[in-house]
Amino acid sequence: MSKNTNNNQTVDEKKGKRTGLTILGYVLVIVALLTVLPVVLPPIFGYHTYLSGTDHTGNISKYGSVVYLKTIDEATYKDGNIVAIESADSSARRVDSYYVDSNDSSAKEIALRDGNGVSYKVVKGQVIAKTPFIGYLSQLCFSAVGIIVTVVIFAAGVAIMMYVNKISKEINTMVEQQTA
Asked: How many domains does the chain have?
């Protein structure tokens, strides 16, 4: 085998490695950004991420976080959706969360953060909470471990992209040597 053939194989191997690592690096960086950006810039994504809590009876929700989507039409309400509302009254900002039973919605009371109740009819059609994939990612921002995981994912993506840059320079050097 000639030296030129060996160089071509090495260049081809490095190009394949570069492509795979580039894709992996972009995926990691995008995941990290999709974790942080909805929390930092919620209006751009059309929803807000809040921590949810429980009322004194424990019936509202378990502690965790929920992504609140606004302007959802009535047809999307189903059993199990979590409902929330923002109040104009500063003492009652929003309902933490609520499990909807579509069979008997007229009798439902929803507990606000200040402990007062508001009729389900007041809430219906205004705000509904769902946790899409990005919402699950955004929950990482609400715990110390999650923040560390997000930072590690972002750092890994950046490190891979830097390594890909190094591989690209090596490929360019090899190609220049072949043409010389």
From this structure: 1
In order of 11, 38, 39, 40, 68, the CA distances from 43 in angstroms are 46, 8, 9, 9, 11
User: Model-level pTM?
Assistant: 0.55
Domain that holds residue 37: 3-179
pLDDT tens over the chain, length 180 residues = 455 666 667 878 888 889 999 999 999 999 998 888 877 776 676 555 544 443 444 333 333 444 444 444 444 444 444 455 443 443 333 444 444 444 544 444 444 444 555 554 444 444 444 445 566 677 677 678 888 999 999 999 999 999 999 999 988 888 888 887
Q: In what order do the strands lie in the sheet with 47-52?
A: 47-52, 64-70, 127-129, 82-83
